[in-house]
Amino acid sequence: MDIITRTEELILLTVWRLRDNAYGITIRKHLKDAAGLDYSIGGIYVPLDRLVRKGLLTSYQGNPTPQRGGMSKRFYKLTPDGIDALERIRTLNTIMWDNLPEPSF
Amino acid sequence: MDIITRTEELILLTVWRLRDNAYGITIRKHLKDAAGLDYSIGGIYVPLDRLVRKGLLTSYQGNPTPQRGGMSKRFYKLTPDGIDALERIRTLNTIMWDNLPEPSF
DNA sequence: TATTATTTATTCTATAAATTAGAAAAAACT
DNA sequence: AGTTTTTTCTAATTTATAGAATAAATAATA
C-alpha cells in the first residue's frame, strides 16, 4: 500500500505528457499553464529528486543546445514502476469517485 | 490555489459516501474495505481535525447508542467549502489525466 | 576581443505542514 | 471489575514550500 502524494502524481503525469521534453522548468511551466498551479522552484526539484530515488523516474543529462544559456538540462522519464504507481492512483480515483450518493448537507 | 492533499481528498470523499454515518472508525474502515488503504488511527483523526479547522468539514457529537461502549461518536459532514475543494480536485484530475499521449519509455 | 550583462537552468538548504503510529484516556455495556 | 468502542494526544518521520546561490551559455558593449 504505497500511495504517491498529490504532488508526485502531478509531476509524474506531467513527465508523461511532456514526453522527451520533461525537465524542471517545463514541468513547472506545464503545471502552471495547464492547471494553474504555482509551484516554487523547490516545489518541483525536491519531489523530482525523490521520485528518482524511489525509482519512479529516471533522469539523464541533456546535451547543450544552441539556445541562450543555463545549466545543462536534466530530463526525466517514467519507469515501469512510475507507470504502475499512476495506475494505482487511477484505480483509487475510480473506486473513490464513482457512484457517490447525492450530497447530504 | 489551495489544493487539498490526497489524504484530505480520500477522507472528504469517504465522509460524503458514508452520509450520516461518518465518524473516525467508519471512515477508517471504509478506506480499508473499499480501497485497501491501511490508515493508522492518527492517520484519520489528525487530518479530520485539520479539515474541521479549515472549514471543509463540520463535526457534531453523537448521542449514546444502545451499543457496547466507547466514547461518544464525533460525526462529520461536508461543508460547501468541502464540496468546492473536491470539485477543484475533480477538475484537476480531468485536466491532468485526459488525452495523455502514448507512454514513451 | 575581452568584459559585463542577461538568460536559462539546477542545486542546495531551511522552515512549515502533513503523515504516520500507537499509547493513553474515556465512556458505555456485560 | 472487565471488555469493547471510540476519541484524544503527541512524537517522529516524511513532504511541501520558498527562494537564494550557483552554473553555464549567449548577447551586448566598450
Counting copies of identical and different chains, the oligomeric state is homodimer
Succession of helices and strands of chain A: HHHEEH
Q: Quote the average pLDDT of chain A.
A: 93
Shape of chain A: elongated
Strand order of the largest sheet of chain A: 1-2
CATH names the topology of chain A as Arc Repressor Mutant, subunit A
The helix fraction of chain A, in percent, is 40-55%
User: Which ranges of chain A are low-confidence, i.e. pLDDT below 50, for 5 or more consecutive residues?
Assistant: none
Number of spatially distinct domains of chain A: 1
Q: How would a textbook summarize the main sheet of chain A? A: 2 strands, antiparallel
Identify the most extensive interface between protein chains: A-B, 33 and 33 residues
What is the number of strand segments of chain A?
2
Proportion of beta-strand residues of chain A? 5-15%
Explain this structure:
The structure is a homodimer of 105-residue chains. Chain A has 105 residues and is mostly helical. Chain A has one domain: Winged helix-like DNA-binding domain superfamily/Winged helix DNA-binding domain (Arc Repressor Mutant, subunit A), CATH 1.10.10. Helices cover 53% and strands 10% of the residues of chain A. The first copy, chain A, has 4 helices and 2 strands, in the order H-H-H-E-E-H. In chain A, strands 1-2 form a two-stranded antiparallel sheet. The longest helix of chain A is centred in the C-terminal third of the chain and has 18 residues, at 80-97. The model of chain A has no long low-confidence stretch (mean pLDDT 93). The interface between A and B is medium-sized, with 33 and 33 residues. Chain B binds a DNA duplex (30 and 30 nucleotides) through helix 3.
